[in-house]
Amino acid sequence: MDSRCSSSADSRLAGRGAGSPNARLESYEAGEKKCISDVRRTFCLFVTFDLLFISLLWIIELNVNGGIAKKLNEEVLHYDYHASFFDIFLLAAFRFVTLILAYAVCRLNHWWAIAVTTTVCSGFLIIKVILSK
């Protein structure tokens, strides 16, 4: 971790002084130096878990329906919108990349990225459920 950043454990330890004003000041200063907030870190972890979970489900689906190598060839190289789940994996990857870029890299403080990805993903999945075989 960069020297400009401090972990939440460091800020908690700094606040355990003998109650002196200097200990509190150090605690507030350490809190301002944090690279990413705990809530933002948890959200990024949730988005990462979502991608890994969708990937695992897709791999299980490939294995159950005739072997991973054969089904990968069918679903990726010979893509069929009505039968393939490769697009759902790509949708999860799109959601992951968009949200991690917005909230971890760019440190966006607005809700529009979540609204856009939720709208796109929900619309696509509703259409996919209606049209899939």
TrEMBL record:
<keyword id="KW-0812">Transmembrane</keyword>
<keyword id="KW-0472">Membrane</keyword>
<dbReference type="InterPro" id="IPR051869">
    <property type="entry name" value="STARD3"/>
</dbReference>
<feature type="transmembrane region" description="Helical">
    <location>
        <begin position="81"/>
        <end position="104"/>
    </location>
</feature>
<dbReference type="GO" id="GO:0005789">
    <property type="term" value="C:endoplasmic reticulum membrane"/>
</dbReference>
<dbReference type="GO" id="GO:0099044">
    <property type="term" value="P:vesicle tethering to endoplasmic reticulum"/>
</dbReference>
<feature type="transmembrane region" description="Helical">
    <location>
        <begin position="111"/>
        <end position="131"/>
    </location>
</feature>
<dbReference type="GO" id="GO:0030301">
    <property type="term" value="P:cholesterol transport"/>
</dbReference>
<feature type="domain" description="MENTAL">
    <location>
        <begin position="36"/>
        <end position="133"/>
    </location>
</feature>
<protein>
    <recommendedName>
        <fullName>MENTAL domain-containing protein</fullName>
    </recommendedName>
</protein>
<keyword id="KW-1133">Transmembrane helix</keyword>
<dbReference type="GO" id="GO:0015485">
    <property type="term" value="F:cholesterol binding"/>
</dbReference>
<dbReference type="InterPro" id="IPR019498">
    <property type="entry name" value="MENTAL"/>
</dbReference>
<feature type="region of interest" description="Disordered">
    <location>
        <begin position="1"/>
        <end position="23"/>
    </location>
</feature>
<dbReference type="GO" id="GO:0140284">
    <property type="term" value="C:endoplasmic reticulum-endosome membrane contact site"/>
</dbReference>
<dbReference type="GO" id="GO:0031902">
    <property type="term" value="C:late endosome membrane"/>
</dbReference>
<feature type="compositionally biased region" description="Polar residues">
    <location>
        <begin position="1"/>
        <end position="10"/>
    </location>
</feature>
<comment type="similarity">
    <text>Belongs to the STARD3 family.</text>
</comment>
<dbReference type="Pfam" id="PF10457">
    <property type="entry name" value="MENTAL"/>
</dbReference>
<feature type="transmembrane region" description="Helical">
    <location>
        <begin position="43"/>
        <end position="61"/>
    </location>
</feature>
<dbReference type="GO" id="GO:0005765">
    <property type="term" value="C:lysosomal membrane"/>
</dbReference>
